[in-house]
Predict the structure.
Amino acid sequence: MADGLSRARVRIAATDGEAHAMLSPAELAGLTGVSTDTLRHYERKGVLGIPARSQGGYRRYSPEAAAQVRLVRRALAIGFTLNDLAAVLSERNRGAAPCHTVRTLVAERLAELETRLRDLTELRDELRILLREWDRRLARIPAGTQARLLDVLADRPAVDRAVARQRRSVAGASPRRQPLRRR
């Protein structure tokens, strides 16, 4: 079977006279590398369809659900939020073409990454300078004497910028874009 389903224990369920390979939550989770809790979360967020139910009330997923979970994982990896993705998929499922929205979201993500890379490069360079200065300071003082290395951090603008970014991130006000708004 395609899409790795041959590795899963697949059950056949009769629906309207047709036979369909159906997956339990554990089987789908195993195929896609997520937990069953994550599957339920994806369902609640609207990025994974509500599965069929067995006669016993157990959730049963179609084989296509594995491809959908992989799509979600890939979209998250490139920076989509679940809310962004739910809006785009909802549009697509209604027959609309959200392609320009998708492109805009990815372009925004790229701009965010470029900014983050610049910030990280600046911080890396600052840390290199800081270590050289600390090495010189440590070479000048007798062993066992406090060098007060951390006190120097107060006069480092690059470190101050890193602190400000961390504060925004902890407060939940990171510079990351807001969820998708309908246009």
In short: Residues 5-77 form a domain with the Multidrug-efflux Transporter Regulator; Chain: A; Domain 2 fold (CATH 1.10.1660.10).
